[in-house]
């Protein structure tokens, strides 16, 4: 169970940056550092989409 003190996905990623965060068969392993970067990029894309929706809607 996740503690209520963690409020964001980013806050939950507390592993050593070079250690594996996600491992899946036949896929490259994703380190905590790479996963954090992907979360930052996804958040930026979602913010951009939200801004566009506000302008058009």
Explain how this protein is built:
The model has no long low-confidence stretch (mean pLDDT 84). The chain is mainly alpha-helical and 57 residues long. Helix content is 51%, strand content 9%. The protein has a domain of 28 residues. The chain contains 2 helices and 2 strands; from the N terminus they run αββα.
Order of strands, main sheet, comes to 1-2
Sheet having the most strands: 2 strands, antiparallel
Structural class, from helix and strand content? mainly alpha
Whole-number mean pLDDT: 84
Count of helical stretches: 2
What level of helicity do the residues show? 40-55%
Shape: elongated
- Number of separate strands: 2
Q: Termini distance?
A: 39 Å
What is the quaternary state of this protein? Answer: single chain
Q: Mind telling me the C-alpha Rg?
A: 15 Å
Poorly predicted regions are none
Name the beta content range: 5-15%
Following the backbone from N to C, one meets helices and strands in this order, namely HEEH
Jot down its keywords:
single chain, 57 residues, mainly alpha, two-stranded antiparallel sheet, 51% helix
């Amino acid at each position: 169970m996740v503690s209520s003190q963690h409020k964001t996905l980013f806050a939950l990623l507390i592993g050593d940056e070079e250690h594996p965060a996600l491992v899946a068969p036949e896929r490259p392993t994703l380190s905590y550092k790479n996963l954090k970067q992907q979360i930052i990029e996804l958040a930026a894309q979602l913010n951009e989409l939200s801004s566009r929706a506000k302008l058009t809607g």
